[in-house]
Amino acid sequence: MYTFLAGIALLIVGYFTYGKFVEKIFGVKADRATPAYVNNDGIDYVPMSTPKNSLIQLLNIAGTGPVFGPILGALYGPVAFIWIVIGCIFAGAVHDYLTGMISIRNKGAHLPELASRFLGKVMKHVVNGFAVLLLLLVGTVFVTTPASLLHVVMDGKVALSIIIVAIFIYYILATLLPVDKLIGRLYPYFGALLLISALGVGIMLIVTGAPIPELSLTNFHPDNLPVLPLLFFTISCGALSGFHATQTPIISRTTQNEKQGRKIFYGMMITEGVIAMIWAAAAMSVFDGGYAGLQEVLAAGGPGAVVSQASTALLGAIGGTLAILGVVVLPITSGDTAFRSARMIIAEYINVAQKKLSNRLWIAIPLFAVSAVLTQMDFNLLWRYFSWANQSTAVIALFVAAMYLYIAKKNYYIALVPGIFMLVMVITYILNAQIGFRLSMNTSWIGGLIGTVVLVVMFFRAAKKARANNLPLEEDISNWNRVA
Protein backbone atom coordinates (compact mmCIF):
# COMPACT_ATOMS: atom_id res chain seq x y z
CA MET A 1 0.00 0.00 0.00
CA TYR A 2 2.85 2.42 0.82
CA THR A 3 4.45 1.97 -2.60
CA PHE A 4 1.09 2.65 -4.26
CA LEU A 5 0.34 5.78 -2.20
CA ALA A 6 3.88 7.11 -2.59
CA GLY A 7 3.58 6.68 -6.36
CA ILE A 8 0.35 8.69 -6.46
CA ALA A 9 1.93 11.43 -4.33
CA LEU A 10 5.02 11.59 -6.57
CA LEU A 11 2.86 12.00 -9.66
CA ILE A 12 1.05 14.96 -8.11
CA VAL A 13 4.28 16.54 -6.89
CA GLY A 14 5.78 15.95 -10.36
CA TYR A 15 3.09 18.09 -11.96
CA PHE A 16 3.84 21.07 -9.72
CA THR A 17 7.63 20.74 -9.88
CA TYR A 18 8.99 19.05 -13.00
CA GLY A 19 5.96 20.17 -15.00
CA LYS A 20 6.69 23.77 -14.04
CA PHE A 21 10.37 23.23 -14.90
CA VAL A 22 9.52 21.93 -18.39
CA GLU A 23 7.10 24.81 -18.93
CA LYS A 24 9.82 27.31 -17.99
CA ILE A 25 12.30 25.71 -20.38
CA PHE A 26 9.85 25.84 -23.27
CA GLY A 27 8.97 29.46 -22.59
CA VAL A 28 5.27 30.26 -22.71
CA LYS A 29 4.17 33.33 -24.69
CA ALA A 30 0.83 34.27 -23.18
CA ASP A 31 0.29 37.14 -25.62
CA ARG A 32 0.92 35.03 -28.75
CA ALA A 33 -2.09 34.26 -30.92
CA THR A 34 -3.11 30.59 -30.96
CA PRO A 35 -4.40 28.58 -33.96
CA ALA A 36 -7.85 28.34 -32.35
CA TYR A 37 -8.37 32.01 -33.21
CA VAL A 38 -6.06 32.60 -36.14
CA ASN A 39 -7.22 29.60 -38.16
CA ASN A 40 -10.77 29.36 -36.83
CA ASP A 41 -12.75 27.33 -39.40
CA GLY A 42 -15.64 26.15 -37.22
CA ILE A 43 -14.62 22.51 -37.79
CA ASP A 44 -11.21 21.63 -36.32
CA TYR A 45 -10.01 25.08 -35.24
CA VAL A 46 -12.47 26.21 -32.55
CA PRO A 47 -11.62 28.00 -29.25
CA MET A 48 -12.77 26.01 -26.21
CA SER A 49 -12.35 26.49 -22.46
CA THR A 50 -9.51 24.97 -20.44
CA PRO A 51 -11.75 22.54 -18.46
CA LYS A 52 -13.33 21.28 -21.68
CA ASN A 53 -9.99 21.00 -23.47
CA SER A 54 -8.49 19.19 -20.48
CA LEU A 55 -11.24 16.57 -20.34
CA ILE A 56 -11.14 16.06 -24.10
CA GLN A 57 -7.35 15.69 -23.98
CA LEU A 58 -7.60 13.16 -21.14
CA LEU A 59 -10.17 11.08 -22.95
CA ASN A 60 -8.31 11.37 -26.26
CA ILE A 61 -5.08 9.98 -24.83
CA ALA A 62 -6.58 7.53 -22.32
CA GLY A 63 -7.75 4.59 -24.39
CA THR A 64 -7.66 1.16 -22.80
CA GLY A 65 -3.93 1.77 -22.33
CA PRO A 66 -4.01 3.16 -18.75
CA VAL A 67 -6.33 0.29 -17.75
CA PHE A 68 -5.48 -2.81 -19.79
CA GLY A 69 -1.74 -2.01 -19.99
CA PRO A 70 -1.24 -1.67 -16.21
CA ILE A 71 -3.38 -4.77 -15.63
CA LEU A 72 -1.06 -6.80 -17.85
CA GLY A 73 1.93 -4.96 -16.38
CA ALA A 74 0.80 -5.99 -12.89
CA LEU A 75 2.19 -9.44 -13.67
CA TYR A 76 5.66 -7.88 -13.33
CA GLY A 77 4.82 -6.87 -9.78
CA PRO A 78 5.47 -3.49 -8.06
CA VAL A 79 8.18 -2.63 -10.62
CA ALA A 80 5.20 -1.59 -12.77
CA PHE A 81 4.62 1.29 -10.32
CA ILE A 82 8.17 2.54 -10.90
CA TRP A 83 7.74 2.71 -14.68
CA ILE A 84 4.34 4.41 -14.42
CA VAL A 85 5.64 7.13 -12.08
CA ILE A 86 9.07 7.78 -13.61
CA GLY A 87 7.86 7.25 -17.17
CA CYS A 88 4.88 9.55 -16.70
CA ILE A 89 6.74 12.47 -15.05
CA PHE A 90 9.97 12.45 -17.04
CA ALA A 91 8.88 10.98 -20.39
CA GLY A 92 5.13 10.79 -21.07
CA ALA A 93 4.05 14.16 -19.70
CA VAL A 94 7.11 15.87 -21.25
CA HIS A 95 6.28 14.19 -24.57
CA ASP A 96 2.65 15.35 -24.44
CA TYR A 97 3.44 18.89 -23.33
CA LEU A 98 6.16 19.57 -25.87
CA THR A 99 4.32 18.05 -28.83
CA GLY A 100 1.22 20.01 -27.90
CA MET A 101 3.03 23.32 -27.46
CA ILE A 102 5.21 22.96 -30.56
CA SER A 103 2.04 22.19 -32.51
CA ILE A 104 0.43 25.37 -31.16
CA ARG A 105 3.46 27.35 -32.36
CA ASN A 106 3.02 25.84 -35.84
CA LYS A 107 -0.67 26.36 -36.63
CA GLY A 108 -1.76 23.13 -34.93
CA ALA A 109 0.45 20.97 -37.16
CA HIS A 110 0.38 17.19 -36.71
CA LEU A 111 3.47 15.08 -36.05
CA PRO A 112 4.31 14.30 -39.72
CA GLU A 113 4.43 18.00 -40.54
CA LEU A 114 6.52 18.74 -37.45
CA ALA A 115 8.88 15.86 -38.29
CA SER A 116 9.26 17.27 -41.80
CA ARG A 117 10.20 20.67 -40.43
CA PHE A 118 12.60 19.56 -37.70
CA LEU A 119 13.92 16.14 -38.83
CA GLY A 120 13.88 16.53 -42.61
CA LYS A 121 11.38 16.14 -45.45
CA VAL A 122 11.99 12.40 -45.78
CA MET A 123 10.77 11.95 -42.21
CA LYS A 124 7.46 13.55 -43.16
CA HIS A 125 6.63 10.55 -45.36
CA VAL A 126 7.96 8.03 -42.84
CA VAL A 127 6.08 9.54 -39.91
CA ASN A 128 2.93 10.02 -41.96
CA GLY A 129 2.87 6.29 -42.71
CA PHE A 130 3.61 5.44 -39.07
CA ALA A 131 0.96 7.80 -37.76
CA VAL A 132 -1.83 6.67 -40.10
CA LEU A 133 -1.00 3.00 -39.44
CA LEU A 134 -0.97 3.62 -35.69
CA LEU A 135 -4.29 5.47 -35.77
CA LEU A 136 -5.93 2.79 -37.89
CA LEU A 137 -4.77 0.12 -35.45
CA VAL A 138 -5.95 2.20 -32.49
CA GLY A 139 -9.32 2.89 -34.09
CA THR A 140 -9.82 -0.77 -34.95
CA VAL A 141 -8.73 -2.10 -31.56
CA PHE A 142 -10.93 0.48 -29.88
CA VAL A 143 -13.97 -0.72 -31.79
CA THR A 144 -13.69 -4.35 -30.72
CA THR A 145 -12.55 -3.73 -27.13
CA PRO A 146 -15.47 -1.56 -25.90
CA ALA A 147 -17.89 -3.67 -27.93
CA SER A 148 -16.75 -6.77 -26.03
CA LEU A 149 -17.07 -5.01 -22.66
CA LEU A 150 -20.56 -3.71 -23.48
CA HIS A 151 -21.53 -7.19 -24.64
CA VAL A 152 -20.56 -8.50 -21.17
CA VAL A 153 -22.37 -5.66 -19.33
CA MET A 154 -25.54 -6.42 -21.32
CA ASP A 155 -25.25 -10.15 -20.51
CA GLY A 156 -25.11 -10.93 -24.20
CA LYS A 157 -28.66 -9.67 -24.79
CA VAL A 158 -27.48 -7.50 -27.69
CA ALA A 159 -25.47 -9.13 -30.47
CA LEU A 160 -21.80 -8.19 -30.57
CA SER A 161 -22.06 -7.33 -34.27
CA ILE A 162 -24.84 -4.79 -33.56
CA ILE A 163 -22.73 -3.11 -30.87
CA ILE A 164 -19.76 -2.91 -33.26
CA VAL A 165 -21.92 -1.30 -35.96
CA ALA A 166 -23.29 1.23 -33.43
CA ILE A 167 -19.76 2.19 -32.35
CA PHE A 168 -18.70 2.57 -35.98
CA ILE A 169 -21.64 4.92 -36.62
CA TYR A 170 -20.63 7.06 -33.64
CA TYR A 171 -17.02 7.11 -34.86
CA ILE A 172 -18.10 8.28 -38.31
CA LEU A 173 -20.09 11.16 -36.83
CA ALA A 174 -17.27 12.14 -34.45
CA THR A 175 -14.81 12.10 -37.35
CA LEU A 176 -16.89 14.29 -39.64
CA LEU A 177 -18.75 16.76 -37.40
CA PRO A 178 -17.19 19.97 -36.00
CA VAL A 179 -15.15 19.22 -32.89
CA ASP A 180 -17.40 21.28 -30.60
CA LYS A 181 -20.69 19.75 -31.79
CA LEU A 182 -20.35 16.15 -30.62
CA ILE A 183 -16.97 15.59 -28.95
CA GLY A 184 -17.05 18.95 -27.16
CA ARG A 185 -20.53 18.29 -25.77
CA LEU A 186 -20.28 14.62 -24.80
CA TYR A 187 -16.75 14.46 -23.41
CA PRO A 188 -17.37 16.42 -20.19
CA TYR A 189 -19.94 13.78 -19.18
CA PHE A 190 -17.73 10.92 -20.32
CA GLY A 191 -14.82 12.47 -18.42
CA ALA A 192 -16.83 12.72 -15.22
CA LEU A 193 -17.82 9.04 -15.49
CA LEU A 194 -14.20 8.02 -16.09
CA LEU A 195 -12.79 10.01 -13.16
CA ILE A 196 -15.54 8.98 -10.73
CA SER A 197 -15.15 5.29 -11.58
CA ALA A 198 -11.34 5.36 -11.30
CA LEU A 199 -11.43 7.29 -8.03
CA GLY A 200 -14.06 4.90 -6.70
CA VAL A 201 -11.82 1.91 -7.35
CA GLY A 202 -8.82 3.73 -5.87
CA ILE A 203 -10.65 4.81 -2.70
CA MET A 204 -12.01 1.30 -2.11
CA LEU A 205 -8.52 -0.16 -2.46
CA ILE A 206 -7.47 2.08 0.44
CA VAL A 207 -10.65 1.69 2.54
CA THR A 208 -10.67 -2.10 2.29
CA GLY A 209 -6.95 -2.30 3.00
CA ALA A 210 -6.32 -4.27 -0.17
CA PRO A 211 -3.05 -6.25 0.01
CA ILE A 212 -1.20 -4.18 -2.59
CA PRO A 213 2.36 -5.58 -2.73
CA GLU A 214 5.28 -3.38 -1.74
CA LEU A 215 8.38 -2.93 -3.83
CA SER A 216 11.32 -4.98 -2.57
CA LEU A 217 14.26 -6.96 -3.91
CA THR A 218 12.38 -10.21 -3.33
CA ASN A 219 9.35 -9.33 -5.46
CA PHE A 220 10.98 -6.96 -7.95
CA HIS A 221 9.53 -9.03 -10.76
CA PRO A 222 7.61 -12.19 -9.72
CA ASP A 223 8.37 -15.47 -11.49
CA ASN A 224 11.48 -13.80 -12.96
CA LEU A 225 9.56 -12.33 -15.87
CA PRO A 226 11.94 -10.37 -18.18
CA VAL A 227 11.29 -6.71 -17.38
CA LEU A 228 13.37 -5.22 -20.19
CA PRO A 229 12.21 -4.26 -22.73
CA LEU A 230 8.74 -5.82 -22.50
CA LEU A 231 7.40 -3.75 -19.59
CA PHE A 232 7.81 -0.54 -21.60
CA PHE A 233 5.59 -1.93 -24.36
CA THR A 234 3.06 -3.54 -22.01
CA ILE A 235 2.47 -0.29 -20.10
CA SER A 236 2.53 2.54 -22.62
CA CYS A 237 -0.43 4.92 -22.36
CA GLY A 238 -0.05 5.10 -18.57
CA ALA A 239 3.61 6.14 -18.83
CA LEU A 240 4.72 7.06 -22.38
CA SER A 241 2.73 6.71 -25.59
CA GLY A 242 3.34 7.95 -29.13
CA PHE A 243 -0.39 7.77 -29.74
CA HIS A 244 -0.67 10.93 -27.65
CA ALA A 245 1.42 12.83 -30.22
CA THR A 246 -1.33 12.15 -32.75
CA GLN A 247 -3.97 13.47 -30.35
CA THR A 248 -2.43 16.65 -28.93
CA PRO A 249 -2.85 18.59 -32.23
CA ILE A 250 -6.62 18.18 -31.89
CA ILE A 251 -6.45 20.25 -28.71
CA SER A 252 -3.61 22.50 -29.90
CA ARG A 253 -6.18 23.74 -32.42
CA THR A 254 -8.73 24.56 -29.70
CA THR A 255 -6.46 25.96 -26.94
CA GLN A 256 -7.13 29.62 -26.20
CA ASN A 257 -3.81 30.60 -24.63
CA GLU A 258 -0.34 29.04 -24.34
CA LYS A 259 -0.35 29.42 -20.55
CA GLN A 260 -3.11 26.79 -20.43
CA GLY A 261 -0.79 24.18 -21.93
CA ARG A 262 0.66 22.75 -18.71
CA LYS A 263 -2.80 21.96 -17.32
CA ILE A 264 -4.06 20.52 -20.59
CA PHE A 265 -1.07 18.52 -21.83
CA TYR A 266 1.26 17.82 -18.89
CA GLY A 267 -1.52 17.70 -16.30
CA MET A 268 -3.75 15.27 -18.15
CA MET A 269 -0.86 12.86 -18.67
CA ILE A 270 -0.26 12.94 -14.91
CA THR A 271 -3.96 12.22 -14.41
CA GLU A 272 -3.67 9.27 -16.75
CA GLY A 273 -0.71 8.05 -14.69
CA VAL A 274 -2.88 8.12 -11.55
CA ILE A 275 -5.53 6.03 -13.36
CA ALA A 276 -2.82 3.57 -14.42
CA MET A 277 -1.56 3.28 -10.83
CA ILE A 278 -5.06 2.51 -9.57
CA TRP A 279 -5.70 -0.29 -12.05
CA ALA A 280 -2.24 -1.79 -11.63
CA ALA A 281 -2.81 -1.87 -7.86
CA ALA A 282 -6.28 -3.39 -8.29
CA ALA A 283 -4.92 -6.12 -10.54
CA MET A 284 -2.13 -6.98 -8.08
CA SER A 285 -4.32 -7.14 -5.00
CA VAL A 286 -7.92 -8.14 -5.68
CA PHE A 287 -7.59 -11.75 -6.81
CA ASP A 288 -7.11 -14.77 -4.56
CA GLY A 289 -3.75 -16.36 -5.12
CA GLY A 290 -2.08 -13.05 -5.98
CA TYR A 291 -0.30 -13.10 -9.32
CA ALA A 292 -1.42 -16.68 -9.98
CA GLY A 293 -5.04 -15.61 -9.53
CA LEU A 294 -4.50 -12.67 -11.87
CA GLN A 295 -2.98 -14.97 -14.49
CA GLU A 296 -5.99 -17.28 -14.28
CA VAL A 297 -8.47 -14.43 -14.85
CA LEU A 298 -6.38 -13.05 -17.73
CA ALA A 299 -6.17 -16.47 -19.34
CA ALA A 300 -9.92 -16.95 -19.04
CA GLY A 301 -11.18 -13.54 -20.18
CA GLY A 302 -8.32 -11.14 -20.75
CA PRO A 303 -7.99 -7.66 -19.16
CA GLY A 304 -11.72 -7.04 -19.65
CA ALA A 305 -12.50 -9.86 -17.24
CA VAL A 306 -10.09 -8.35 -14.70
CA VAL A 307 -11.88 -5.00 -14.97
CA SER A 308 -15.27 -6.63 -14.52
CA GLN A 309 -14.35 -8.81 -11.55
CA ALA A 310 -12.22 -6.20 -9.78
CA SER A 311 -14.87 -3.49 -10.17
CA THR A 312 -17.63 -5.71 -8.84
CA ALA A 313 -15.50 -6.96 -5.95
CA LEU A 314 -14.58 -3.44 -4.83
CA LEU A 315 -17.75 -1.48 -5.64
CA GLY A 316 -20.57 -4.01 -5.66
CA ALA A 317 -22.94 -4.77 -8.52
CA ILE A 318 -24.18 -1.23 -9.24
CA GLY A 319 -20.91 0.55 -8.56
CA GLY A 320 -19.04 -2.13 -10.47
CA THR A 321 -21.26 -1.66 -13.51
CA LEU A 322 -20.64 2.09 -13.43
CA ALA A 323 -16.89 1.47 -13.17
CA ILE A 324 -17.01 -0.86 -16.15
CA LEU A 325 -18.91 1.78 -18.13
CA GLY A 326 -16.19 4.25 -17.14
CA VAL A 327 -13.63 1.90 -18.67
CA VAL A 328 -15.81 1.41 -21.76
CA VAL A 329 -15.70 5.18 -22.25
CA LEU A 330 -11.89 5.10 -22.53
CA PRO A 331 -11.48 3.21 -25.81
CA ILE A 332 -14.54 4.82 -27.39
CA THR A 333 -13.27 8.33 -26.66
CA SER A 334 -9.87 7.47 -28.12
CA GLY A 335 -11.16 5.50 -31.07
CA ASP A 336 -13.28 8.39 -32.30
CA THR A 337 -10.42 10.88 -32.15
CA ALA A 338 -8.03 8.32 -33.66
CA PHE A 339 -10.09 8.34 -36.86
CA ARG A 340 -10.49 12.10 -36.63
CA SER A 341 -6.72 12.53 -36.31
CA ALA A 342 -6.11 10.18 -39.23
CA ARG A 343 -8.46 12.26 -41.36
CA MET A 344 -6.70 15.49 -40.33
CA ILE A 345 -3.20 14.07 -40.89
CA ILE A 346 -4.05 12.81 -44.38
CA ALA A 347 -5.71 16.13 -45.24
CA GLU A 348 -2.64 18.02 -44.04
CA TYR A 349 -0.34 15.66 -45.97
CA ILE A 350 -2.15 16.16 -49.29
CA ASN A 351 -3.06 19.78 -48.50
CA VAL A 352 -6.85 19.49 -48.70
CA ALA A 353 -8.94 21.98 -46.69
CA GLN A 354 -11.48 20.35 -44.37
CA LYS A 355 -14.21 22.96 -44.16
CA LYS A 356 -16.29 21.21 -46.85
CA LEU A 357 -18.05 18.03 -45.76
CA SER A 358 -17.31 16.40 -49.11
CA ASN A 359 -13.56 16.77 -48.53
CA ARG A 360 -13.88 15.16 -45.13
CA LEU A 361 -15.99 12.33 -46.51
CA TRP A 362 -13.72 11.12 -49.28
CA ILE A 363 -10.82 10.92 -46.84
CA ALA A 364 -12.77 9.31 -43.99
CA ILE A 365 -14.70 6.63 -45.93
CA PRO A 366 -11.59 4.66 -47.03
CA LEU A 367 -10.26 4.80 -43.46
CA PHE A 368 -13.39 3.15 -42.08
CA ALA A 369 -13.41 0.59 -44.90
CA VAL A 370 -9.86 -0.49 -44.04
CA SER A 371 -10.69 -0.56 -40.34
CA ALA A 372 -13.72 -2.78 -40.96
CA VAL A 373 -11.42 -5.29 -42.65
CA LEU A 374 -8.88 -5.09 -39.79
CA THR A 375 -11.58 -5.98 -37.22
CA GLN A 376 -11.43 -9.51 -38.63
CA MET A 377 -7.79 -9.90 -37.57
CA ASP A 378 -6.63 -11.45 -34.30
CA PHE A 379 -6.77 -8.86 -31.50
CA ASN A 380 -3.52 -10.02 -29.88
CA LEU A 381 -1.61 -9.70 -33.15
CA LEU A 382 -3.03 -6.22 -33.75
CA TRP A 383 -2.08 -5.18 -30.21
CA ARG A 384 1.53 -6.34 -30.60
CA TYR A 385 1.95 -4.32 -33.79
CA PHE A 386 0.21 -1.38 -32.13
CA SER A 387 2.57 -1.51 -29.15
CA TRP A 388 5.69 -1.31 -31.30
CA ALA A 389 4.30 1.34 -33.66
CA ASN A 390 3.10 3.30 -30.63
CA GLN A 391 6.47 3.50 -28.91
CA SER A 392 8.30 4.10 -32.19
CA THR A 393 6.07 7.13 -32.70
CA ALA A 394 6.88 8.30 -29.16
CA VAL A 395 10.60 8.18 -29.99
CA ILE A 396 10.08 10.26 -33.12
CA ALA A 397 8.02 12.83 -31.22
CA LEU A 398 10.64 13.13 -28.47
CA PHE A 399 13.40 13.65 -31.04
CA VAL A 400 11.29 16.33 -32.77
CA ALA A 401 10.95 18.09 -29.40
CA ALA A 402 14.67 17.70 -28.69
CA MET A 403 15.52 19.22 -32.09
CA TYR A 404 13.19 22.16 -31.43
CA LEU A 405 14.82 22.86 -28.07
CA TYR A 406 18.35 22.36 -29.43
CA ILE A 407 17.80 24.90 -32.19
CA ALA A 408 16.28 27.27 -29.64
CA LYS A 409 19.41 26.82 -27.47
CA LYS A 410 17.35 25.52 -24.58
CA ASN A 411 17.69 22.43 -22.37
CA TYR A 412 17.01 19.74 -24.97
CA TYR A 413 18.00 16.91 -22.63
CA ILE A 414 14.50 16.84 -21.11
CA ALA A 415 13.30 15.33 -24.41
CA LEU A 416 16.48 13.70 -25.70
CA VAL A 417 17.23 11.51 -22.67
CA PRO A 418 13.83 9.74 -22.61
CA GLY A 419 13.96 9.63 -26.42
CA ILE A 420 17.31 7.81 -26.40
CA PHE A 421 16.14 5.42 -23.67
CA MET A 422 13.03 4.42 -25.61
CA LEU A 423 14.98 4.23 -28.88
CA VAL A 424 17.15 1.50 -27.37
CA MET A 425 14.01 -0.34 -26.23
CA VAL A 426 12.24 0.01 -29.59
CA ILE A 427 15.16 -1.32 -31.63
CA THR A 428 15.89 -4.12 -29.15
CA TYR A 429 12.24 -5.15 -29.05
CA ILE A 430 11.79 -5.39 -32.83
CA LEU A 431 15.04 -7.32 -33.22
CA ASN A 432 13.94 -9.87 -30.61
CA ALA A 433 10.14 -10.01 -30.95
CA GLN A 434 8.12 -12.66 -32.76
CA ILE A 435 6.64 -9.91 -34.95
CA GLY A 436 10.18 -8.75 -35.71
CA PHE A 437 13.50 -10.44 -36.51
CA ARG A 438 13.45 -13.07 -33.73
CA LEU A 439 17.12 -12.65 -32.80
CA SER A 440 18.46 -13.72 -29.42
CA MET A 441 18.06 -11.24 -26.60
CA ASN A 442 21.81 -10.66 -26.25
CA THR A 443 22.17 -9.99 -29.97
CA SER A 444 19.12 -7.73 -29.87
CA TRP A 445 20.58 -5.64 -27.03
CA ILE A 446 23.83 -5.18 -28.94
CA GLY A 447 21.91 -4.23 -32.08
CA GLY A 448 19.74 -1.85 -30.09
CA LEU A 449 22.73 -0.05 -28.60
CA ILE A 450 24.61 0.19 -31.90
CA GLY A 451 21.53 1.39 -33.78
CA THR A 452 20.86 4.02 -31.12
CA VAL A 453 24.41 5.37 -31.22
CA VAL A 454 24.26 5.70 -35.02
CA LEU A 455 20.90 7.49 -34.95
CA VAL A 456 21.93 9.84 -32.12
CA VAL A 457 25.08 10.84 -34.03
CA MET A 458 22.90 11.56 -37.07
CA PHE A 459 20.57 13.61 -34.88
CA PHE A 460 23.36 15.85 -33.59
CA ARG A 461 24.77 16.39 -37.07
CA ALA A 462 21.33 17.45 -38.31
CA ALA A 463 20.73 19.58 -35.19
CA LYS A 464 24.00 21.51 -35.56
CA LYS A 465 23.25 22.14 -39.23
CA ALA A 466 19.71 23.32 -38.46
CA ARG A 467 20.95 25.67 -35.73
CA ALA A 468 23.64 27.07 -38.00
CA ASN A 469 21.05 27.72 -40.72
CA ASN A 470 18.66 29.38 -38.21
CA LEU A 471 15.83 26.98 -39.01
CA PRO A 472 12.52 28.73 -38.11
CA LEU A 473 10.98 27.24 -34.98
CA GLU A 474 7.46 28.51 -35.44
CA GLU A 475 5.07 30.11 -37.88
CA ASP A 476 5.52 33.85 -38.37
CA ILE A 477 2.60 35.65 -36.69
CA SER A 478 3.64 39.20 -37.54
CA ASN A 479 0.76 39.55 -39.96
CA TRP A 480 -1.81 37.71 -37.85
CA ASN A 481 -4.67 39.52 -36.19
CA ARG A 482 -5.87 37.97 -32.97
CA VAL A 483 -9.62 37.50 -32.84
CA ALA A 484 -9.90 37.01 -29.09
Automatic annotation (TrEMBL):
Q: What is its main location?
A: membrane
Q: What InterPro entries does the database record attribute to this sequence?
A: CstA, CstA_N
In what residue span(s) does the CstA N-terminal domain sit?
Answer: 4-164, 298-427
Q: Where in the cell is it found?
A: Cell membrane
The UniProt keyword set, sorted, is: Cell membrane, Membrane, Transmembrane, Transmembrane helix
Topological relation to the membrane, as annotated: Multi-pass membrane protein
Pfam family of the protein (one)? CstA
| Record-annotated membrane-spanning stretches | 75-98, 126-152, 158-179, 186-207, 227-243, 264-287, 307-333, 361-379, 385-405, 412-431, 443-463
User: Which protein family is it in?
Assistant: Belongs to the peptide transporter carbon starvation (CstA) (TC 2.A.114) family.
PANTHER family recorded: CARBON STARVATION, INNER MEMBRANE PEPTIDE TRANSPORTER
What is the recorded name of this protein? Carbon starvation protein A
Organism, by scientific name, is Robertmurraya beringensis
